Amino acid sequence: MKPVFDKNEYARRLTKVRKSMAAKGIEVLIEADPANMNYLTGYDGWSFYVPQIVVVPEAGEPVWIGRGVDLGGAKLTCWMSQANIVAYPEVTVQHPVMHPMDFVGQEFARRGWGRKRVGFPVDCYYFTPRASAALKAAMPNARAVDTDLLVNWARLVKSDAEIKLMRQAARVTEAIVDTYYKAMLPGRRQCDAAGDILRTAAAGTAKFGGDYAACMPFIPVGDQTQASHLTWTDQVIKSGQTSYIECSGVRYRYHSPLARSIWIGPKPPRNLLETNAVVLEGMEAALAQAKPGNTCGMMADAWQKVLDRAGVKKESRIGYATGIGYPPDWGEHTASLRAGDSTVLKPNMTFHMILGMWMDGWGFESSETFRIADRGVECLAKVPRGLKVIDGARGKSQSAGRAKAKAKAKAKAKTKPARKAPKRRRA
Amino acid sequence: MKPVFDKNEYARRLTKVRKSMAAKGIEVLIEADPANMNYLTGYDGWSFYVPQIVVVPEAGEPVWIGRGVDLGGAKLTCWMSQANIVAYPEVTVQHPVMHPMDFVGQEFARRGWGRKRVGFPVDCYYFTPRASAALKAAMPNARAVDTDLLVNWARLVKSDAEIKLMRQAARVTEAIVDTYYKAMLPGRRQCDAAGDILRTAAAGTAKFGGDYAACMPFIPVGDQTQASHLTWTDQVIKSGQTSYIECSGVRYRYHSPLARSIWIGPKPPRNLLETNAVVLEGMEAALAQAKPGNTCGMMADAWQKVLDRAGVKKESRIGYATGIGYPPDWGEHTASLRAGDSTVLKPNMTFHMILGMWMDGWGFESSETFRIADRGVECLAKVPRGLKVIDGARGKSQSAGRAKAKAKAKAKAKTKPARKAPKRRRA
What we know:
Two copies of one chain form a homodimer.
Chain A: H1 7-24, E1 28-31, H2 34-41, E2 53-56, E3 63-67, H3 71-77, E4 85-88, H4 100-110, E5 117-120, H5 129-138, E6 143-146, H6 150-154, H7 160-183, H8 190-203, E7 241-251, E8 254-264, H9 270-288, H10 296-310, E9 319-326, E10 329-336, E11 350-358, E12 363-372, E13 377-379, E14 388-391, E15 396-398, H11 400-413
Parallel strand pairs in A: 1-5, 3-4, 5-6, 8-14
Antiparallel strand pairs in A: 1-2, 2-3, 7-8, 9-10, 9-11, 11-12, 12-13, 14-15
Helix pairs in contact in A: 4-5, 7-8, 9-10, 9-11
């Protein structure tokens, strides 16, 4: 094993991060988000359930500080020299009195950082109030500054090397969705279909393997589709049920998420077809705004116009920046595709636009992960967009194109097809 | 879908938790650990990547407060009435200025909790310093008290209904390890074997399905085994490599983790067989202490005696309480099997004893998840313990029993076999 990128890539990232540090007056930066740690050092391991950090001083290599049993993993995956891979005492792990950050404070003092302006994470899953308090207590002369997602923002524009991995992740995503379409047959248990899907996600393609995603695939069926974050059960799939998948292929921790919806049975209900038609139209309208110089808010506004015309409501944002991810989230926690978000789109920014419509008793999702190109947009995974009809009773599935065409035909037949969609929505 | 347990089970849990609240002078308890939220309410969804809490007042039902798009999931999985399932405004999600906890403070005031002694989580992955500060600012007249893992400790002794689910999880664990033994053949990519393993984990058994585990399976091969928390790569498995798996079957979020090691090839190296022999002896010595009235520390001491005699060092604790789990951890963060831990063992406590030996360039793991029985101990998964030899070149695998017997025979042939194991260890 070795770090995924060459040293120049990591050097460019450090330069970008240090520029932001200087702007905020941060002399020493603490990172505890595993995605940010990976971005800065290459570190990759499922060890984020114990305290661990990467420290970025004003000059020199970053320093990885974690648990002793994870030194082996850090040495296999980080690009830094061994002197900058440091373990805290094992006995402090999940101890009622001692805390690893007691030791980390000493390490800071040893390296001359005890009186610096130190950037602390305040909204990261893996740096708790207890960790923060322990580290501050251990270096009383440091001045704590809020890092405010500094590294997350540095990740927003990807390098070409990162885009290459996201495209590979999209190949895995395509394979996962293909498996989903084949697996969701009436008479099978949801968990058996989930097993097929997870197998494809790990195995990847013949050219390269897959990796675990920051979220489990959401594969609700029937009334479970009214919820946005359910995984699967061991209930038997029946004809006459709707389902969706929200999943991501992953390559070296880079994600390319995608959602698609299906109808299991011979004839999709009208409200599902109508929602499908509105969502596809809204998707196209939003993507038409995805180009350098426009803002995230402009994409959301274009989507909203289509919804308003159809009389459909959805309160939640329609997307977020994506890239490196670790559980529990493949979002980058920075720019959102949401009204009022003024982030200006630039080439090689990557977003997951997720159009989830969670109704009373049923739901529908469709999404694209896209890259802002020099002009316009590149959707990473090539999967036809519309509702897929899986007529398991006849042992065959209808192409998404045909389902979409049918929906469009229906939409044409009536002037304003979506106005009749069910009233109650909380999407 | 419906809550997994009957209302009486949840009522008993609340009684237990309220007793601890009273002892700490907590009038209103905030829980943000998804395992604790599940324990109290049944809530199950992959929504812990946004702020969400369960609140336990002194009397009445707990209250679930989360994101609007997750209301559907909460209503499908929680046992409480709809009045106690509440959403904060969607626009606050991952917003640069607003925070969901601003709203939660108002909800607290509305319910008359604004001046109470409120228990705040301080060491939970999903309640960050920013969330804590926002909620405190939103109810300036409340008195904040550290909850100090109060609900985690309530989970330590399981009910019979919980044990039933953990035994079912162990059936899935057995199936996963069986798949691992069959999948790890020379010439295959690690990711393809990982795919087989994840399929079994989700599909479960013919009787009931599996669920996602709080940790991905760790399936390092070759020099990756020197690290404790690596998952898999797409490298090709070769004859002459060691590997281990650490995994867990899951049933309704209840885990039964297990680790086993293999040698891929005709003839395991001596240091691996010697480590295997020492670990098995230490495992038996520790399990002999696993009975009501003994302490966690006594189990660790029994293990340590075996290690000392063999001249082998391992600094990390050898286990922890386990049960309900969500990413990133299936440990309960309470009692540890570690020298000095004075937790007294009681019937229906459940632990994962994990003996991981991470050497310089290679590693070995073996573990058991066990229940303290009325007298002695019940290991939940029935998987032979010793090193498994997988001789893929000959297309067959040697039974663990035979490998263990061989190791024992070797051990007998020399007086102190393990003394010659490699010097450098950092386990």
